[in-house]
Design goal:
The protein is built from 17 helices and 19 strands. The protein is an alpha/beta fold. The protein folds into two domains: about 110 residues, Urease, subunit C, domain 1; about 290 residues, Metal-dependent hydrolases (TIM Barrel), CATH 3.20.20.140. The chain binds zinc ion (ZN). The site of zinc ion has 6 residues, from loops.
Amino acid sequence: MGTTTQRSIHGRASLDASRRRLLGGTAALGALSVAGCATTAGGGGGGLPSRGEWLVRGGHVMTMDRKAGDLPGADVHVRDGAIVAVGNGLQAPGAQVIDARGMIVLPGLVETHWHIWNTILRSMSGAEKKYGYFPTALGIGRVYEASDMYHSARLASAEAVFSGITFVHDWCHNIRTPHHAREALRGLQQSGLRGRFSYGTMQGHPVDRPMDVADLERLRADWSQHSNGGLLSLGVAWRGVSTGGTGLIKAEATREDVAAARRLGLPVSVHLNNSRARAGGIAQLAKDGLLGADLQAIHAVWVTPEEVKALAASGASVSISPFSELRIGFGVPPTSRFLEAGIPMGLSVDTTALSGNADMFGIMKVTQNAENARTENEFQLPARRVLELATIEGARSMGMADRIGSLVPGKRADLIMVDTRAVNLGVFTDPAHMLVEAAQPSNVDTVMVDGRILKRGGRLVAVDAGQVVDEARIALAGLRKRANWW
Ligand SMILES: [Zn+2]
């Protein structure tokens, strides 16, 4: 028994190490290439607030590090985009003080799978079959111009920051031309968010044709121009073995996609076992030897015990998006089964065309509630465990746990402050329960990414929200007209 435990602990540690190596590679590359000019954002990110030296003073600090725990009335010292110290009564004479009394201070929320390009199709999945999510994404996706990618990324990023999300995984599967990819990236760069951009195909992509590998190679080679000073990394949004909007994807074409990703050392993300009709995808990949620590399985709602074992043994991660999974009728994600198997796991928005918004507090709440309902157990998934999924565990699932996900010295300064004095909070009870059950994006007072303040006093400071919204509306009007959509 003891030896088995020992072995499995070591196994997990080595998987984590390989996950970091595989998933962190491109970000590290980006960071290295801009050493010495950290405030000059590559490829369109100029104009972001500068990184200050801050002393976040007197908050209820939830480090989300199991050893460090919660520190009531504590401080966080930030310099050059990094966390210098966390503790009570810190001294930092050169720092600007941010009063965090009455606030919960915690790591920025980590989002792990979001089709950011269709954020401007918010709530457009209709009530009848021809206007369901997939026909909508395909029907309107086909008429996307590159500028629509940009405006959607701008709206999504603004909402992310407003909601306390500091890391996004942009799963981009409407790259109609290389310019579309670069415009999507430009929107992300301007936001100052940290994230991964996963390069995919386009809506209506021929089922027998691989993705644009030549463009992916170019992007990989020039990544330092796109990484926004190391904030963004590159991955591949793989079609996998499921069916697309245009029918069954041909295995050969998709194999070329995943082979290209691995040749380039890029992490792979793929929708698997979404619905009852698409069960068996993970078993297929296991059989083909395609699982690995560089692979993220999205949804995985319908899984056999053998598939859970295969995921765990390979070191793959899972991303669930309960709002879209419930809304579209995929089913209820079996969250505890992944956690019990030790699979790294994160929470995700998926698409605002189905989920409506990108409220990570709501996503945490539905994750807990759906899992407790599924298992008929009030105590199945504790609030603090859910909060881990939205912070340190989500970071681990993206290969980012050595840089973000908890408030400990040496990590990058991605943190948020939640004001507990709003009427939907008001009393201070258990902070994890308050965040998961009661808090809303409007309670997020301050958002810091890499030492830059992007939201302060409840307002976005690095973006003109009015302009972003106006431009998103104009873009959607054009799309509706061109697609002749309701
Ligand atoms: Zn998705």
